[in-house]
């Protein structure tokens, strides 16, 4: 009897160890929002990823500058003991490409995002192809003590410009809680281009009014994207309007060998 109980306990322990090992195999997911958004823009994606057993962290991106924001995210990544899938939206794409070295990042996912090469800025890339109407929707810049300026989208133009495929009530809340980006950050040249060495995935909407879809397609091709998903009719915030599709491509990047 004692031998049977011992064997049963050992078997249960072995199963527990296997379960823990399987959980440990899943990389952590780190989400970095872009300009005029904030961490809750990932809520729908987070629910789906967590339901599938992933550990998720949505970073409060400072939106002060590519290098400083990249350093901020890099310090966070240093605390992870598991591999990481690093995901960036919009300007957050510049940040993740800057932040990925040195770290345990196994994959990059660009969600309606910039993927700049060394020496390129968000402004450079958004103007590479026609189609962005962001400039005409910006409010008067807010002066900062350091001589810089913060940029916001006018709240009455936010829905149409930024989140046209999101219900109006939700877009109104997003407009009120938008985080400003410095004008200097959008014009700052990138130093690192992590997509050159780390496998990358892209997803974006063909109705994006912030970054021209042709620009994102061009960046995805340049980065030799492992998979590029174009969501018909989706706005710049495809992670809000289509969290299922965004979660799916993140999981694809997480499980890729």
Largest sheet geometry: 6 strands, parallel
Number of helices: 11
Which overall shape is indicated by the principal axes computed on the Cα atoms?
A: globular
Number of strands: 9
Strand order of the largest sheet: 2-1-3-4-8-9
Q: What's the helical proportion of residues? A: 40-55%
CATH topology-level fold name: Rossmann fold
Structural class: alpha/beta
Identify low-pLDDT runs: 1-23
- In terms of DSSP E residues, the strand content is 15-25%
In round numbers, the mean pLDDT is: 92
Q: Report the end-to-end length measured between terminal Cα atoms.
A: 45 Å
Gyration radius over CA: 20 Å
CATH hierarchy, class? Alpha Beta
**Per CATH, which architecture?**
3-Layer(aba) Sandwich
List the helices and strands and how they pair.
Blueprint: H1 2-25, E1 28-32, H2 43-51, E2 56-59, H3 66-77, E3 84-89, H4 91-99, E4 105-111, H5 122-126, E5 142-143, E6 149-151, H6 155-162, H7 168-177, E7 181-182, H8 183-187, E8 200-205, H9 213-222, E9 228-231, H10 238-241, H11 243-255
Parallel strand pairs: 1-2, 1-3, 3-4, 4-8, 8-9
Antiparallel strand pairs: 5-6, 6-7
Short description:
The chain is of the alpha/beta class. It has a single domain, classed as 3-Layer(aba) Sandwich (Rossmann fold), CATH 3.40.50.1820.
Structure explained in plain terms:
With 257 residues, the protein is α/β, with parallel strands linked by helices. It has one domain (26-255): Rossmann fold, CATH 3.40.50. It is built from eleven helices and nine strands. The protein has helices spanning 2-25, 43-51, 66-77, 91-99, 122-126, 155-162, 168-177, 183-187, 213-222, 238-241, 243-255, and strands at residues 28-32, 56-59, 84-89, 105-111, 142-143, 149-151, 181-182, 200-205, 228-231. Strands 2-1-3-4-8-9 form a six-stranded parallel beta sheet, sandwiched between helices. It has a three-stranded antiparallel beta sheet with strand order 5-6-7. The longest helix is centred in the N-terminal third of the chain and has 24 residues, at 2-25. It is globular, with a radius of gyration of 20 Å.
